[in-house]
Amino acid sequence: MPNLKYEDIVRQxxxxxxxxxxxxxxxxLHPNFVLYSPISNEPIRxxxxxxxxxxEYKGATPxxxxxxxxxxxxxxxxxxxxxxFKHTGQLWGxxxxxxxxxxxxxxxxxxxxxxxxxxxxNVDLAAALQQVGLSLxxxxxxxxxxxxx
Length: 149
Hints:
The structure is a single chain. By secondary structure, this protein is α+β, with helices and mostly antiparallel strands. The protein has a single domain (6-134), classed as Nuclear Transport Factor 2, Chain: A (Roll). 29% of the residues lie in helices and 34% in strands. It has 4 helices and 6 strands. It has helices at residues 6-19, 22-28, 46-60, 125-131, and strands at 29-36, 44-45, 66-73, 76-86, 100-112, 115-123. A 6-stranded mixed β-sheet has the order 2-1-6-5-4-3. A hairpin with a 7-residue loop joins β1 and β2 (44-45). The chain is globular.
Protein backbone atom coordinates (compact mmCIF):
# COMPACT_ATOMS: atom_id res chain seq x y z
CA MET A 1 0.00 0.00 0.00
CA PRO A 2 1.39 3.44 -0.83
CA ASN A 3 2.56 5.69 1.99
CA LEU A 4 -0.70 7.43 2.95
CA LYS A 5 -1.44 10.09 5.55
CA TYR A 6 -3.57 8.90 8.46
CA GLU A 7 -6.55 10.93 7.25
CA ASP A 8 -6.31 9.21 3.85
CA ILE A 9 -6.17 5.78 5.50
CA VAL A 10 -9.19 6.58 7.66
CA ARG A 11 -11.24 7.94 4.76
CA GLN A 12 -10.44 4.84 2.69
CA UNK A 13 -11.47 2.63 5.63
CA UNK A 14 -14.99 4.09 5.64
CA UNK A 15 -15.23 4.22 1.84
CA UNK A 16 -14.11 0.62 1.32
CA UNK A 17 -16.23 -0.71 4.19
CA UNK A 18 -19.25 1.04 2.67
CA UNK A 19 -18.49 -0.52 -0.71
CA UNK A 20 -17.83 -3.96 0.83
CA UNK A 21 -14.46 -3.97 -0.98
CA UNK A 22 -12.81 -6.84 0.93
CA UNK A 23 -9.52 -6.71 -1.03
CA UNK A 24 -9.05 -3.04 -0.12
CA UNK A 25 -10.11 -3.70 3.48
CA UNK A 26 -7.38 -6.33 3.78
CA UNK A 27 -4.83 -3.71 2.66
CA UNK A 28 -6.04 -1.13 5.19
CA LEU A 29 -6.25 -3.29 8.33
CA HIS A 30 -3.32 -4.49 10.42
CA PRO A 31 -3.20 -8.29 10.92
CA ASN A 32 -3.79 -7.71 14.66
CA PHE A 33 -6.82 -5.49 14.04
CA VAL A 34 -9.44 -5.23 16.80
CA LEU A 35 -12.74 -3.33 16.93
CA TYR A 36 -14.33 -2.48 20.28
CA SER A 37 -17.96 -1.46 20.05
CA PRO A 38 -20.89 -1.13 22.44
CA ILE A 39 -22.95 -3.17 19.97
CA SER A 40 -20.89 -6.32 20.50
CA ASN A 41 -20.37 -8.40 23.63
CA GLU A 42 -16.85 -9.25 22.48
CA PRO A 43 -14.28 -7.33 20.46
CA ILE A 44 -14.23 -8.10 16.74
CA ARG A 45 -10.77 -9.44 16.05
CA UNK A 46 -8.82 -9.76 12.86
CA UNK A 47 -9.45 -8.94 9.25
CA UNK A 48 -11.79 -11.92 8.78
CA UNK A 49 -13.93 -10.85 11.74
CA UNK A 50 -14.23 -7.35 10.31
CA UNK A 51 -15.13 -8.65 6.86
CA UNK A 52 -17.85 -10.89 8.36
CA UNK A 53 -19.31 -7.91 10.22
CA UNK A 54 -19.38 -5.78 7.05
CA UNK A 55 -21.03 -8.61 5.10
CA GLU A 56 -23.74 -8.85 7.79
CA TYR A 57 -24.36 -5.09 7.64
CA LYS A 58 -24.42 -4.89 3.86
CA GLY A 59 -26.86 -7.81 3.63
CA ALA A 60 -29.32 -6.30 6.08
CA THR A 61 -28.96 -2.55 5.83
CA PRO A 62 -27.39 -1.01 2.74
CA UNK A 63 -25.60 2.07 4.02
CA UNK A 64 -23.05 4.72 3.11
CA UNK A 65 -20.85 6.23 5.79
CA UNK A 66 -20.32 9.98 5.58
CA UNK A 67 -17.28 11.29 7.44
CA UNK A 68 -18.12 14.62 9.06
CA UNK A 69 -14.83 15.33 10.85
CA UNK A 70 -11.40 13.79 11.35
CA UNK A 71 -8.98 15.02 14.01
CA UNK A 72 -5.49 13.52 14.15
CA UNK A 73 -3.39 13.24 17.30
CA UNK A 74 -0.15 11.31 16.95
CA UNK A 75 -0.95 7.76 15.81
CA UNK A 76 -4.68 8.23 16.49
CA UNK A 77 -7.54 9.76 14.54
CA UNK A 78 -10.91 10.67 16.02
CA UNK A 79 -13.75 10.54 13.52
CA UNK A 80 -17.35 11.78 13.64
CA UNK A 81 -19.52 9.99 11.09
CA UNK A 82 -23.11 9.26 10.08
CA UNK A 83 -24.67 6.62 7.87
CA UNK A 84 -28.16 6.67 6.38
CA PHE A 85 -29.51 3.15 5.98
CA LYS A 86 -32.59 1.12 5.11
CA HIS A 87 -33.46 -2.14 6.89
CA THR A 88 -33.97 -4.38 3.83
CA GLY A 89 -32.62 -7.75 4.96
CA GLN A 90 -32.48 -10.16 7.89
CA LEU A 91 -30.63 -8.61 10.84
CA TRP A 92 -29.97 -10.49 14.09
CA GLY A 93 -32.80 -12.88 13.31
CA UNK A 94 -35.26 -10.06 12.70
CA UNK A 95 -37.05 -9.74 9.33
CA UNK A 96 -36.63 -6.52 7.36
CA UNK A 97 -38.92 -3.65 8.26
CA UNK A 98 -38.23 -1.68 5.07
CA UNK A 99 -37.84 1.45 7.20
CA UNK A 100 -35.08 4.00 6.82
CA UNK A 101 -32.93 5.61 9.46
CA UNK A 102 -29.61 7.24 10.14
CA UNK A 103 -27.01 6.09 12.61
CA UNK A 104 -24.23 8.37 13.79
CA UNK A 105 -21.25 7.95 16.01
CA UNK A 106 -17.59 8.49 16.58
CA UNK A 107 -14.56 6.26 16.29
CA UNK A 108 -11.10 6.49 17.82
CA UNK A 109 -8.81 4.85 15.28
CA UNK A 110 -5.23 3.85 16.04
CA UNK A 111 -2.72 3.39 13.20
CA UNK A 112 0.35 1.15 13.41
CA UNK A 113 2.78 0.42 10.59
CA UNK A 114 0.59 2.41 8.19
CA UNK A 115 -2.49 0.26 8.89
CA UNK A 116 -5.50 0.46 11.19
CA UNK A 117 -4.83 -1.69 14.23
CA UNK A 118 -7.63 -0.59 16.58
CA UNK A 119 -11.04 1.05 16.39
CA UNK A 120 -13.01 2.09 19.44
CA UNK A 121 -16.56 2.75 18.31
CA ASN A 122 -19.19 4.85 20.07
CA VAL A 123 -22.71 4.71 18.64
CA ASP A 124 -26.30 5.12 19.86
CA LEU A 125 -27.68 1.77 18.73
CA ALA A 126 -30.99 2.23 20.56
CA ALA A 127 -31.80 5.36 18.54
CA ALA A 128 -30.93 3.66 15.25
CA LEU A 129 -33.02 0.58 16.06
CA GLN A 130 -35.98 2.70 17.13
CA GLN A 131 -35.99 4.41 13.71
CA VAL A 132 -36.64 1.06 12.00
CA GLY A 133 -39.15 -0.23 14.54
CA LEU A 134 -36.83 -2.45 16.60
CA SER A 135 -35.55 -2.18 20.17
CA LEU A 136 -32.48 -3.27 22.11
CA UNK A 137 -34.65 -5.96 23.68
CA UNK A 138 -35.05 -7.48 20.21
CA UNK A 139 -31.34 -8.29 19.97
CA UNK A 140 -29.92 -11.73 20.70
CA UNK A 141 -27.80 -12.07 23.81
CA UNK A 142 -24.89 -14.25 24.82
CA UNK A 143 -21.18 -14.32 24.06
CA UNK A 144 -19.77 -13.01 20.81
CA UNK A 145 -21.51 -10.73 18.41
CA UNK A 146 -24.86 -9.44 19.57
CA UNK A 147 -25.26 -7.83 16.22
CA UNK A 148 -24.05 -4.82 14.35
CA UNK A 149 -25.74 -2.08 12.45
